[in-house]
């Protein structure tokens, strides 16, 4: 543990976020996502929700302001009537830390899997909400 | 995730507990314990308390009924006036899952470090209570 | 060994099943299947039958209820007159633990090999029945 | 699987037995033995009994005829009234395959642990009988 | 060394043959074959002939009875007048251990190389006869 | 790079500082220190001074307030007339970030080497000042 | 540290530059470049600027005099009005050490990424200037 | 060092040459060749010339007598007026040890690179002559 | 295979003998010797006798002429009436290749084991003669 | 290869010398020294003499000016009448590059071996002179 770093952030997760550059993507996946099968680099955060983790990392992690979208969500499968209320939670956290509305891209389920495969890392959580997987695209740190 | 397994238990932690045998010890360490320096096998559970983890693992993990003590706690350093209330929490959890009072050994600080070095594994948590490190000695599984 | 976990489940197999996510597949292969040649992750369970293993893992392992089929069997090669009675055994075990009839897909032999190559893991057994290889697709764990 | 090799013998176990030389020792440990903590080389045979394994390997594995004892058992802890009937089973299997009475050494519990640490390999089983751990000392293969 | 296992079989070779399944192939290559360049798994048997090895392994290794051919030989390059007498030796050994005539496929030189690349293992010998490379396809072990 | 983390801190250094616990030590070594020979974990920061690094890490890294000394410096070798002015720089930086005077232990040269060997990590710099090696003992992070 | 070698050059960077041959490329990347994601071999030089590193390595590193271009820069994205003054700095350093004007190729952003992926190594810096990534193509050392 | 083996041959080079089979190729590359970038297996012989190495290895290394060419040289780039006198040196060494004129293939520069990538090994020297890279194709050892 | 190198010498064995220096020892062990348990570096030569190997390696391997003994044999255990005729075979081979009588040291069985543990390598054979283990101490190669 | 770095210095040797610190030792060993058996880090320079290497590295490698001796040689074994003329060569090279007479320590043969074991690295050459092994103790690089 260090001062100013929330204890929920594992040393490996911090290292990975520091290594990432402009345009690299990180996925925060729910508890049923096939994270171990798809991840280039896997960070396990068993027992935590995605929102807890977003709140911890967003003070450090800049979102991409150049790209058209800096946040990716899995779009509801056609025919599914679920309304993912977790998205509002995500939007609030992002707005709170990033100071502006998130630029969100909705990604079809299988396209989402392909994006996850190419992401720099996947953080597996125990999030139990539906449609709770989220991709963040890293932005630029300026002096 | 699997049915009947609490999501807070990481796959690696479950594997390690299954591998352990009679008399092997596992340490659940607080957030300031030098776990990475001392552990033969390290399982990180950043962001969690020790009690949360004990509640999750004790339904699976048998305590040693043969040994004089199946639980080790770090004894209060002479001169220190703190009264570790977390110990009561531990006793309750152990009693609840194990059906009997924990047989506790109090271990001097530096002896505790030596025991931790020899333990089969150390689970590092973000527990912030004082004197919150605990050693469990594994017992026997009978049919 | 742990309480509540059948001893036939190896620590590695438990870890692998916990790591798997929604849609990931696991193959339980008979003793003559080329498991070592095809497996991304190989778990050896020499000396056991597939049915013994299914009985042990199904209380933990959820089958996919979203996919059209959650179970895959190798279809009888055209011209072969064998009637694989082992399938009835599998259906009974699955029905007993999953509470409903298995949704079975029959897969042509060489397609089965391709599926096995892509599976998250292959569990090699010493099952001696014919047409005894089986693929399980993992479902979702809900609270 | 190969002809003439019982399927319960894993490829790794066969390789290890072939590598062993005169005087090297192998431990067949019960399900509660701390095998993973002590083994130089660990072979997991979860779900099997020690007797099943002895029956499979003794046609191949020569016992030491030069040493005073070729078999080691853990002696009953003083005060313990248990009578390990499994020992008779072991003696019968050894006599059947080796053609003569086993030369058995009884080893005090903690000395047994030390011997296990130095053994060439430990085979972990799910044997549930008491005092069921056994050490075999390898003999010489003659033309 | 073990009883009943010819000493020429290395522990690694035995392990590899046990791991192989139905349809997997193993190449016994002569001393000039580029084994190290092509092998997925390489077993060196320097100083031995192919025939010595076939005699040792065929009592254990079942040939495929389902496939059209269970044995592959490199066909004589067009224009080459050599008559590979070693083939008769191979046929005799196979007939002796397998109880029936070998079903031999003749493979063009460069096709043979491609098959060797995909084989489960290549065993490199010091065989000096011409056209002495041989592929065996593993069959099924039945109770 | 991340927001709020000085770019001079490498991802590996941050990870290591997060992994360290109460009482673990880290050495910031000058450019001529035999860091690679002694380090359990080596972090290279070629081209930087020790002071630059202390300024970057001290906002995150708590010094031990329990131990008698939280900072170690190599004492001037008897007979050497050098007065290490770099020490004043270190004291100022520590006082600035830690809010109190550093509790410094002066360590004889060869004892210093032994301490460095046991430290959790050594950070090698290109610091060119004399007697510029410094050991920091990690303290406790409290809520 | 060695005589005649600037301390900013890490041992790993020197080794890599020595290993490179005629036509191999090395990228010096700014602090936001996704170096860890793209590099075959990654050298971290956190806390330094690209210019500092160029000044250190150019006395040793020959630029390619055979190729049409020995230096690559990322061309300004169409529509972007920034004028990268850092380029003048690079040109001066190259001219100073190489004795002639740099032969510069301007590379479209995504082509630059592809070149970086194929480069022998990427050196990640904390350079904060815009359009500051630079590729050097290694030339020939003559007696 | 061994009797009858020239000391310039490294243990690794000898092992690699022994492992190679009929048709495998080895490249002896000059000091500016990008050997580390292209080699499947790299043997460094810094400080030596190609000719010194050829003289040492040719008494052991048979050239291919079956292939149309057993030696490959990089053809002079069109427009380049250099006359590679080193080739005569190579021809003499090969003739001296192989007893007949070398069958040389001239390979266009970029085709040469592709061949080098596929070679069993590349030996990097400090040869400073132009057009000094050479490929040897291994032949057959006969009794 | 190479010209002038007997095919029975494996590439790894040749590499190991080349790496050894003055005073380093190599053990050629019989088929029942616990080679895998004791060897720092193990070379398997299954299926061969020790004499075959000595004949192959002695033209290359210099025996130590400085040490009091350059050859070690295991002395007959007191009470054992066996007369190891294999020793005469060894003496003849050594005399033939080394040009003088071997300077033999007889080593008590357990001292022999200790020597084997410290040897640079152990070569395991399938030699079946009694008391057939032999240690060679490497000498100096002179121009 | 790089400008200003002699080609005889391998990339690995340069890296190792850069990593070494004040007081670390490096051994340049002759061709019969048991380098591979004793080295923590081994750099092979087969085919070269020690003097060639000293000439190449001494412009970069500072000798220790603080220690009583910065150079170690193996003292002539009592009774041996050889006069190692190579020492004069070494003294000349050291004086030429270091600008002053070498401070030489003569080390008894077995003490030399112990020093070599603890050295940061051993460079194995093919030097054939007697008593040609030499230890250099690294000094300090000052601005």
From TrEMBL, chains A, B, C, D, E, F, G, H, I, J:
Record's keyword annotation contains Isomerase: yes
InterPro entries in alphabetical order: RbsD-like_sf, RbsD/FucU_mutarotase, RbsD_FucU
Gene name as annotated: fucU
NCBIfam families: PRK15420.1
Pfam families in alphabetical order: RbsD_FucU (PF05025)
Catalytic activity: beta-D-ribopyranose = beta-D-ribofuranose; alpha-L-fucose = beta-L-fucose
PANTHER family: FUCOSE MUTAROTASE
The keyword Isomerase belongs to this UniProt entry's keyword annotation: yes
E.C. no: 5.1.3.29
Domain of life the protein comes from: Bacteria
Keywords, in A-Z order: Isomerase
Protein name: L-fucose mutarotase
Gene Ontology terms for molecular function: D-ribose pyranase activity; fucose binding; L-fucose mutarotase activity
Signal peptide (residue range): none
GO biological process: fucose metabolic process
């Amino acid at each position: 543990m260090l001062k100013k770093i929330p204890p929920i952030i594992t040393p490996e997760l911090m290292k990975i976020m520091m290594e990432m550059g402009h345009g690299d993507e990180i996925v925060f996946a729910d508890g049923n996502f096939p994270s171990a099968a798809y991840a280039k680099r896997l960070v396990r955060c068993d027992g935590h929700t995605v929102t807890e983790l977003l709140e911890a990392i967003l003070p450090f992690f800049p979102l991409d302001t150049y790209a058209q979208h800096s946040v990716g969500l899995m779009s509801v499968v056609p025919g599914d009537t679920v309304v993912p209320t977790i998205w509002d939670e995500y939007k609030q956290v992002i707005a709170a830390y990033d100071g502006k509305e998130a630029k969100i891209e909705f990604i079809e389920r299988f396209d989402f899997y392909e994006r996850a495969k190419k992401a720099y890392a996947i953080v597996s959580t125990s999030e139990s909400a539906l449609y709770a997987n989220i991709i963040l695209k890293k932005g630029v740190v300026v002096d």
